[in-house]
Task: structure prediction
Amino acid sequence: MSYAFVQDVAASWDQYERVGASLMEPAPAGLILHVAGPTDEGFRTIEVWESEQAWEHFQAKRLAPAIAALGGPARPQRPAAGQLLAQGVHPRHPPVP
Result:
């Protein structure tokens, strides 16, 4: 089942841009959608993954090491708003069952 979350991060948009580009190229396996933008407190990401396991693999193998390299925690905080998707539509992907 697909997995989606919204995460607010208390880090600068400059920090996101430094790390974000390296994390998204090549696109992580299982990632369906990633959007991000600056907020007053830092930045917000919204992601949809093919499964929670795909997210966890990305977090462990790519995200955590990239954040640690910037001096952040080796284990980034898990998104507080993660949800398994019951329904979703994307024009280039079949509907989520």
Remarks:
- Strands lie at 3-9, 31-38, 43-49, 83-84.
- The first helix runs from residue 13 to 24.
